[in-house]
Specification:
185 residues; mainly beta; six-stranded antiparallel beta sheet; 11% helix; globular
């Protein structure tokens, strides 16, 4: 596995090695010892999977303490644009985001530590999105930030009218409102 730091401290791109032959390929997608040696010791407690069609945008979601989650995300079918926003007060990159293309054909993964809002847009006909988290899902602790909040400046590559969104994501709060709520934690 290759571990690459990104421009935002704590966010990592992980490229598992694939061993292929005429049957297909084999790849280790997670190894606790390598992950701990390069990033940190994280105990994942829940695996999640979603299936979404082209132009579905899920996010920007995060959970408040004590239910904040670190995530290891990947695409097992299709291709997505994955986005993480640094919501950690005091961070040098507070309020900045990173965008990475995750493609099942490449097997690229993204590790997002606690304290980030996260979302993705499906670029292929459909995508199967899988992620490990280090804390349980707690709906009462979840925040949904507006995808098109101008303070974030995320370029999703399509107009909002073309996005397929949940009611919750259409009715999200602003980035500034989220910052204010997180300051109360």
């Amino acid at each position: 596995m290759q571990f690459e730091k990104t421009a935002i401290e704590g966010v990592w791109i992980i490229r598992p090695q694939r061993h292929g032959d005429r049957r297909g390929y084999f790849s280790e997608t997670f190894r606790a010892d390598l992950f701990g040696a390069h990033i940190s010791d994280v105990t994942f407690v829940q695996d999640n999977e979603s299936m979404s069609a082209r132009n579905v945008v899920r996010g920007m979601h995060l959970q408040r303490e004590p239910y904040a989650q670190a995530k290891l995300v990947r695409v097992s079918e299709g291709r997505v644009m994955d986005v993480a926003v640094d919501m950690r007060r005091g961070s040098d990159t507070f309020g900045r985001h990173i965008s990475v293309i995750l493609d099942a054909d490449e097997g690229t993964q993204l590790f997002i530590p606690r304290g980030f809002a996260h979302g993705f847009r499906v670029l292929s006909e459909y995508a199967r999105f899988q992620y490990k988290v280090d804390n349980i899902y707690a709906p009462q602790a979840e925040l949904s930030i507006l995808l098109d909040d101008p303070d974030l400046g995320i370029d999703w590559g399509i107009a909002k009218e073309q996005m397929v969104l949940s009611d919750r994501d259409m009715q999200g709060i602003t980035w500034r409102q989220a910052v204010s709520l997180l300051a109360q934690d």
